[in-house]
UniProtKB/TrEMBL annotation:
Residues 9-252 form the AB hydrolase-1 domain. GO terms for molecular function: (S)-hydroxynitrile lyase activity; methyl indole-3-acetate esterase activity; methyl jasmonate esterase activity; methyl salicylate esterase activity. Belongs to the AB hydrolase superfamily. Hydroxynitrile lyase family. It catalyses: formylthiophene + hydrogen cyanide = (2R)-2-hydroxy-2-(thiophen-2-yl)acetonitrile; an aromatic (S)-hydroxynitrile = an aromatic aldehyde + hydrogen cyanide; acrolein + hydrogen cyanide = (2S)-2-hydroxybut-3-enenitrile; 4-methoxybenzaldehyde + hydrogen cyanide = (2S)-2-hydroxy-2-(4-methoxyphenyl)acetonitrile. Its EC number is 4.1.2.47. Gene3D superfamilies: alpha/beta hydrolase. GO terms for biological process: jasmonic acid metabolic process; salicylic acid metabolic process. This is (S)-hydroxynitrile lyase. Pfam families: Abhydrolase_6. It is an enzyme of class 4 (lyase). It comes from Phaseolus angularis (Azuki bean).
Length: 264
């Protein structure tokens, strides 16, 4: 039992969200004796950075990298990345492969040494633009007036119909109060700062969890990443929307317990 208490899962949210979205899952994992750390990426959740503070994808993921740097040398963790959190944990795997026992991609982006995030994003953007109106907005720093930044917001109707459609209404209400705008990163930034190698990223065990009813990261897109960048294991959550930690927390909890038992 003492060994189980030392196992730690680090939960990384997707775009617009924050550590708050894991509240159901964190409770279940904690009750099972697993250590849980839910992090806010920069300018997300209650992280103090504001949208205008974020100039690169590296800066956005810095809270995760800082946490891994702070771990004792002998401690390893299981990373769980939801949606855009999949890219975040991929960058962490590249920088700290020795600190990651396994990486779990929860309906998440899963780039690799031979499958770039930028190519996946351009493909995804085309798919999504055929279904939704992908509008972006621009904000300018009043103090400098010369560094406009583009960002995305998620409206309530889109949340209800395509993101939280299988989740309880109270979770949709919670999200509508807590979501924050998401920065749009430039192609050059993504090309330069999301490169992964076999020597680092490629040494970490990976598990992909497919969400069957996801209308954003649709099942065929999830499976196409699995086919092009095969993980060690694939699991499926039937009936889960894009927010499985809210729509199917018990099933997700069971899978993460299994993963911790196998890979830790």
């Amino acid at each position: 039992m003492e060994g189980k208490k030392k196992r730690r899962l680090v939960l990384v949210h997707g775009a617009y969200h924050g550590a708050w979205c894991w509240y159901k899952l964190s409770t279940l994992l904690d009750s099972a004796g697993l250590q849980v750390t839910s992090l806010d990426m920069a300018a997300s959740g209650i992280h103090p950075n504001q949208l205008l503070d974020i100039t690169s994808v590296s800066q956005y993921v810095e809270p995760l990298l800082q946490f891994l740097r702070s771990l004792p040398p002998e401690e390893r963790v299981i990373l769980v990345g939801h949606s855009f959190g999949g890219l975040c944990i991929s960058l962490a795997m590249e920088m700290f492969p020795h600190k990651v026992a396994a990486a779990v991609f929860l309906t998440g982006w899963m780039p690799g040494p031979h499958l770039s995030y930028l190519s996946l994003f351009l493909e995804f953007k085309h798919r999504l633009s055929l279904k939704f109106n992908l509008g972006s907005k621009t904000v300018t720093d009043e103090n400098t007036n010369d560094h406009p930044k583009r960002y995305m917001t998620c409206d309530l109707q889109n949340l209800a119909s395509n993101v939280y459609q299988q989740s309880p209404p109270e979770d949709l209400a919670l999200a509508s109060s807590l979501l924050r705008p998401f920065p749009i990163f430039g192609d050059e930034d993504l090309r330069e700062n999301t490169q992964l190698t076999e020597e680092n990223h490629g040494t970490v065990a990976r598990v992909y969890i497919v969400c069957e009813q996801d209308k954003i990261m649709e099942q065929d897109f999830q499976l196409s990443m699995v086919e092009r960048n095969p993980p060690n294991e694939v699991k499926v959550i039937a009936g889960a929307d894009h927010m499985p930690m809210l729509s199917k927390p018990q099933q997700l909890f069971s899978y993460l317990q299994e993963i911790a038992d196998i890979y830790y």
